[in-house]
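Why do we care about 3D structure at all? Because function follows from shape, and shape follows, mostly, from sequence. That is the central idea of this module. The next example makes it concrete: a single protein chain, its amino acid sequence, and then its structure expressed as tokens.
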Amino acid sequence: MVLAQSHLLDGDLDAAVTTARRAVEDGDALQSARFQRYVRDFQREVSVHGALPIVQQLNGQVREALEHLDDE
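And the structure:
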């Protein structure tokens, strides 16, 4: 998520969201409260681009991953 944030600060939204999605793919990382906070912070920062499909896909992926954690 730190790399995703760095891409975002550099103005590269595509790389930022792609990196964030890769980080979220490993659902085990979402068990960490700190990692969840990083993800929420990142989502908040990209929310200004919320209408873009890549951001919507990220949000959906995060939602599904968190729901999966709740099921365990």
